[in-house]
Amino acid sequence: MAYDQRGIAEVVLKGLTACPLMRLREVAESLHIDRHTIERALRDRLGRSFRSVQNELLRATVEQRMRDHPHESIKEMAVALGYDPSQSFSRRWRRIAGCCPIVEDAMKKIPFGVRTVLYVGGAALLLNVVRIQLSPRADAMASTGGAYTIALVEQTGNGKGATMRLASIQTWARRSDGATALKLGAGDRTSRLITLPSGLSIRTQDVIKAKSTIHVPPRGVQEQRDPNNLCKRSDDVNPAGTEEAFSGLRIAKFVEKASDRTSTTRYALDYGCPVVSRETTFSNGSVSHLRLVSFTPGEPDSALFDVPQGYAEGPPSELQTEHEKAHCPASCQAGFKRQDDEYYRLRPRE
Q1: What confidence tier does 249 reach under pLDDT thresholds 50, 70, 90?
Q2: Do 18 and 147 have their domain in common?
Q3: Cβ atoms within 10 Å of 344's Cβ, excluding its own
Q4: Which of 75, 271, 286, 315 has a CA positioned 20 to 30 A from the CA of residue 334?
């Protein structure tokens, strides 16, 4: 089977930029490809192994965290990065930087620009490849007509201190005409949900070249977040959000509590309130982190909205791959049954 090596390398770099502790096995399982294929793509595109790329990006992440949190202890940093206990972080950092975190802790007192010169490594090269594209100027954001492309990585874990695993790689996009697209996955192994201004909603499963099309009724005003009211919905019973700066964006931060979870969500105020970050803790102790990889203002890649003519039309249940069918229990199949019923009710009539 042929693979898009450039696409694989790009999505792995994006994932490691947001979550530098992801394991090669987790990435391979998420993309449903062999880990050797990932290693081959990185070596062909960057001349580096997965471990080498990971180490460089981890170093860059730690350097940035030292800059943003100069008073944070080594233990606090280790936990924030997903290490528990901190000894494993100390060993990993010693292999990467050649010194222990205690030395790095002392180096925090050196001005960041001077400290960066003291490091030896190729982090700058990789960061040029996966540079997060952000614009802090609200007027520049408004000039795009609300168009953007957001890359996010989701990780999940079973509890505090548990190893986080890669759950999904997401690309959210909005055109200035109001069309939106959500892409899950990487390369040609993706699924998409495209919503057009006409009301058409198209799901695609690109690996099997299939699609499912319905006409979606317009959402009520109460279901939409209002960027002029800090992204609050009119029917929202949670406290109002607070305005903050986040990764160069003007955002509204909400802490929302339900019976089984507590979520902290950040919405981009100048772009119609898309989600750019979310941390959720469930009552059973499990956690989910949705992390921002990149936010690019302006019209998104038109390929995100393209649906080839040769895609077979059918209900959502027919969009499952063989892998998904094999891992879809009775409750999952019941969900597809409800979606199929909706499909036959709302599909466009010829």
Answers
A1: confident
A2: no
A3: 9
A4: 286
Share of the chain above pLDDT 90, in %: 24
Closest CA to 103 of 118, 117, 88, 113: 118
Q: Do 301 and 153 reside in the same domain of the chain? A: yes
- Which residues, other chains included, contact 303 with Cβ-Cβ below 8 Å and sequence gap of 6+? none
Q: How far is CA 211 from CA 84, 168, 201, 205, in A?
A: 43, 21, 10, 6
Check pLDDT > 80 for residue 258.
yes
Q: Is the pTM of this model over 0.85?
A: no
Count of other CB atoms within 10 angstroms of residue 335: 13
Contacts 24+ apart (CB under 8 A), 135-143: 135/248, 135/297, 136/245, 136/248, 136/249, 138/250, 138/270, 140/297, 141/250, 141/270, 141/271, 141/297, 142/270
Range name among 78-92, 119-133, 291-305 with the lowest pLDDT average: 119-133
Please indicate, yes or no, whether residues 24 and 167 belong to a single structural domain of this protein. Answer: no
Residue 24 CA to residue 146 CA, distance in Å, equals 36
CATH number of the domain bearing residue 117:
1.10.10.60
